[in-house]
TrEMBL record:
Protein's recorded name: Anti-ECFsigma factor, ChrR
Taxonomic superkingdom: Bacteria
Transmembrane segments: none
InterPro entries per record: Anti-sigma_ChrR, Anti_sigma_zinc_sf, ChrR-like_cupin_dom, RmlC-like_jellyroll, RmlC_Cupin_sf
NCBIfam families: anti_sig_ChrR (TIGR02451)
CDD domains: cupin_ChrR
Domain ChrR-like cupin: 111-200
Pfam family, one: Cupin_7
Signal peptide: none
Annotated source species: Thalassobaculum litoreum DSM 18839
Length: 222
């Protein structure tokens, strides 16, 4: 059977912001990584970009100052002179599991990240995606294990890179993006048979809701 691609996608508003260049850096990395695996959203973004291009073409031209061209050319010269930093080759698992552009942020590969235990069978590695207003990280959930029940301060976006998990909203496999809002209280559980690896971008932090796990809330980073 032909691969139909991911079944769960980022919100249309986020795709539109991405196409217009208005999405945050971390959200843009998540969307672009999803696009690498999702033909449907690639088509949608191309349509948004075409609409934006048509609007620009219909906009009357604005007169520029006399030094505008020289200023732009000077900036281009500076960018050209900066030699790109070589990106070390990553391991085979990272190459197979993590699409670009996210892979470009994992110079040491998946195993080289600073993993920390976040529960029984759950580990997290915080990422620097160039946007410190949100928390971006990779989460590894061992088969059959779960993330503690929680809600969200604002929005949590989760993209599955490997394996799959289920919660009260459904099943999420490779390439799928789950959007958690403040009214969602859920407990993601990894499917048996394979570790689940996810990219998570959280705005507004998390709040644990379990009887005992809520005691951890004061320790959670914001």
């Amino acid at each position: 059977m032909a691969d139909i691609g991911p079944l769960h996608h980022p919100e249309a508003e986020l795709l539109l912001d991405y196409a217009a260049g208005k999405a945050s850096q971390a959200a843009s990395v998540l969307v672009a990584t999803h696009l690498a695996l999702c033909p449907e959203c690639r088509r949608q973004v191309r349509e948004y970009e075409a609409i934006g291009g048509a609007l620009i073409e219909s906009t009357p031209p604005v007169a520029l100052s006399q030094d505008a061209l020289s200023s732009v050319m000077a900036q281009l010269d500076e960018a050209w002179e900066e030699a790109p930093t070589p990106v070390p080759a990553v391991d085979a698992e990272t190459m197979q599991t993590v699409p670009e552009p996210l892979r470009g942020y994992l110079s040491a590969g998946i195993e080289g990240l600073p993993w920390k235990t976040r529960g029984l069978g759950v580990r997290e590695a915080v990422l620097d995606l160039g946007d410190h207003s949100v928390r971006s990280s990779l989460i590894r959930i061992a088969p059959g294990k779960r993330i503690l029940s929680h809600t969200h301060g604002e929005v949590e976006r989760t993209m599955v890179l490997k394996g799959a998990y289920t919660d009260s909203t459904g099943r999420y496999g490779r390439g799928d993006v789950a959007v958690g809002t403040p009214d969602l209280d859920h407990t993601p559980v990894a499917e048996m048979g394979e570790e689940c690896l996810c990219l998570i971008v959280v705005e507004g932090g998390l709040q644990f809701t379990g009887r005992f796990s809520r005691l951890l809330n004061p320790l959670m980073p914001r």
